[in-house]
Fold Signal recognition particle 14 kDa protein.
Amino acid sequence: MFATTLTIMVLLTNDEFLTELTKLFQKARVSGSVTMTMKRYDGRTKPHPRDGTPAVPNPKYKCLIRAQSSSKKISTVIDQEDVEKFSTAYTNLLKTSVNGLKRLKKPKKKAIAAQ
């Protein structure tokens, strides 16, 4: 009766993630969009215990980055040591891929003051 499409999140290495993200941006240039999310990640796959047992002292936090297009989801986990290298590569990717944005027209100050 109902046709459901199941999209599975794929965890990639940092370099593979940037390569796949480039492909997502190229597909979205024709039609569609890409949604990016970033969040702190401590490596846990289970929720914190309720019984008051202490959490891991001084966890090494990582960064979880996800990208989603209409039919594809990808993600990667970045270690603390690799943040600078990844952010440089990510910034260069954004500069080359996100160039079709339109500038917003700012209203002139005189027009605003006249109202």
Remarks:
- The helical segments are 14-30, 83-97, 109-114.
- Residues 10-44+58-95 form a domain with the Signal recognition particle alu RNA binding heterodimer, srp9/1 fold (CATH 3.30.720.10).
